[in-house]
Amino acid sequence: MKRLTVPAIRQRKGRTPLVMLTAYTVRTAQILDPHCDMLLVGDSLGQVIYGLPSTVPVTLEMMAAHGAAVVRGSFHALVTVDMPFGSYEASPEKAFESAAWLLKQTGAAAVKLEGGEAMAPTVHFLTERGIPVMGHVGLTPQAVNVLGGYGARGRSEEEAAKIVADGRAVADAGCFALVIEGVVEPVALDLTHGVACPTIGIGASAQCDGQVLVAEDMLGLFERTPRFVKRFADMAGLIDGAAASYAEDVRSRAFPGEGQVYAAKPPA
Ligand code: KIV
Ligand code: NA
Question: Closest-lying ligand to the alpha carbon of 212?
C-alpha cells in the first residue's frame, strides 16, 4: 500500500470523511496506521506523554524525536508533525527553517501550525517552497495564555466571524487541510463550505470533512476527558487490571512459571 499524499488528501474534500488520529510512538503508529488516512504527531504530547501543563513548553527536538518514531511505524497514513510554540510565529523565514528541519529529521510529509490571518503569509511562504501546511483555527491551545483557557470558541457573532475569517485566510494561503478545534457547529459548517481544502474537526461537530482525536483520549488512557471525546476503549482499565494481576502473581510466586523459565539444558 502506498502512503497517502497531500494531493490525495486534498481531493477528499466533500467526499468520504477523512480519518485522523494522533500518534507519538512507534507501536501506536503501527496499530493505528491501517485505520487512518492521516496520523498527527500533535504537540498535545506535551501533556499526554510528558505531563506538561500546556503545549507551550514543547520543543522542536521533542517533535522531531516522536515524529521520526511515528514515520518509522507507519507506511499508509500521511504523517503531519505539529510545529511547536515559538518555532514559527516570528517570521515566514523562521517558520521555514523550523519546518524544513522537522521534515528532514522525521521524514514526515507535512507540518501543522496554529493561527489565522496573522499566519497566512507564513502558510504561503512554506507551501511555495515545498512544505505542505495543515492549518489549525478555533481553539488554538498554544494561545492558551491569550485565550485564558480551553473553552469552546465562536459563541458570539464577532468571535464566530473572526474564526471563519482566520480559517479562510490560511486555507486561501495554501493549506492542504484545516483543523477546526472547539467551535460551535455553525462555525464548522461555515468554514467547511467556505474553504477549498478539507476541514478536520475536533470538538467541532460532524459538519467537517474529517475528524481527529487524541488517540489516548479515545482509548480511555488519559485522565482528562473533554466533552467532545468519545471513549472507544478503556485502556486505563486494561492496564490497571494487567498491572494488578502481575503484582499478585509476583507476590504469590505464580510468576514466573514453568513456561517462562529457561531450561537448564537446551532441548536436544
Ligand atoms: O496536538 C494535537 O493533538 C492537535 C490535535 C488535537 C488537532 O493539534
Ligand atoms: Na497541536
Answer: 1
CA angle 67, 210, 162 (to 5 degrees): 95
pTM to 2 decimal places? 0.96
Q: Distance (Å, rounded) from C-alpha 200 to C-alpha 40?
A: 11
Residue numbers belonging to the annotated binding site for 3-methyl-2-oxobutanoate: 43-44, 82, 112
159 is catalytic: no
Looking at residues 181-193, what average pLDDT do you find? 98
Distance 95 CA to ligand 2 centre (A): 16
Are 18 and 12 contacting, i.e. CB atoms less than 8 angstroms apart? Answer: yes
The Å distance, Cα 96 to ligand 2 centre, comes to 18
Q: How far is CA 175 from CA 43, 178, 196, 219, 231, in A?
A: 19, 7, 9, 29, 30
Domain positions in the chain are 6-218
Reported as a single tens digit per residue, the pLDDT across 106-116 is: 999 999 999 99
**CATH of region 6-218:** 3.20.20.60
**123 contacts 113 by C-beta, under 8 angstroms:** yes
ipTM score over 0.90, yes or no = yes
Question: What is the rounded distance in angstroms from the CA atom of residue 76 to the CA atom of residue 73?
Answer: 10
**Residue closest by Cα to atom 4 of ligand 1:** 42
For ligand 1, which residues put their CB under 6 angstroms from it? 22, 40, 42-44, 82, 179, 181, 202, 212, 214
Residue with cell 529529521: 105
